[in-house]
Design a protein that fits this description.
The chain is of the alpha/beta class and 272 residues long. It has 13 helices and nine strands. The strands form two sheets. It has a seven-stranded mixed sheet. The protein has a two-stranded antiparallel sheet with strand order 7-8. The relative contact order is 0.15. Bound molecules: S-adenosylmethionine. S-adenosylmethionine binds at residues 7-8, 44, 65, 76, 99-102, 105-106, 121-123, 126, 149-150, 166-168, 174-175.
Amino acid sequence: MIGPEAPVRRSPEGSEAAARAGRELRKRYAAADLRVFTRDEASRFIPRGEGDPQEDAGLAWELLYRIEPELYDRLSNAEPLHPGVVDWLPSDVDLIAEVAAGTGRLTMELIERGRRIVAVEPALPLRRILRSKLAAADHGTRVRVIPGFFDQLPLPDDSADLVVACSAFTPSPGHGGEAGLAEMERVCRPGGYVAIIWPNHLDWLAARGYRYVSFPGPMSMEFVSYQEAVELAEIFYPEAAGAVRGRGSRRVPFDLLGVNPPRDLAFRLLAE
Ligand SMILES: C[S@@+](CC[C@H](N)C(=O)[O-])C[C@H]1O[C@@H](n2cnc3c(N)ncnc32)[C@H](O)[C@@H]1O
């Protein structure tokens, strides 16, 4: 099931929906696939040197990013952020550091908001997709895409006006944790913002001084076609796949999938 380490799918933790969400994904990978991790990745995702993606949805997601990155990209392309979230972020700033940038769902929205963007992403296959998207949009030089982890950001102290992560940070050490939050705050300049978009551990963040904002309105997943909606629902939302098929539409309300939409963020303004 999706445990506390799973970085995505906002099902209420411990809910039935959370338990079901990773079933089909977990079936796609085996323990032998863990060989794809670099040493640095293994030290975070399988600290005891072993794990089973058939049992651990968090590991299955990490394998997805490395073994089938295009499949992940198809999913995230269908989950646009609420425009209120993007509008809320600071704009006209010098440097934005995005951690866990993936294939650029948020990165592409940040381009107009900062003079320089640094996108940190540990998974090489996702970095490749992000670089090719940026090149295709003629933004290859404005955004620097570099490897790195929450708990070891390759950026100087007090350097960014905004340090942000979307659909990635959790309190677990492998996916952020105390060390990851401290790193994000180290890199953020006094008077700058640290923001966690689509957060799923609100109490944990609130206890560390993070405030919460959520934007209202109905939200749907927007697949490129009805066929794509059905195919991806069968993998990522198997319990809802029948309902998705029955709707006959490329648009699928998040409510029907049983997950919270990407409409919220937690943030902290660092004291000057
Ligand atoms: C669900 S994806 C989100 C990607 C992107 N931010 C988006 O919104 O589409 C989670 C991302 O977290 C990254 N990630 C996982 N563990 C990480 C870590 N310890 N440090 C930095 N990034 C990490 C993954 O490689 C992946 O890109």
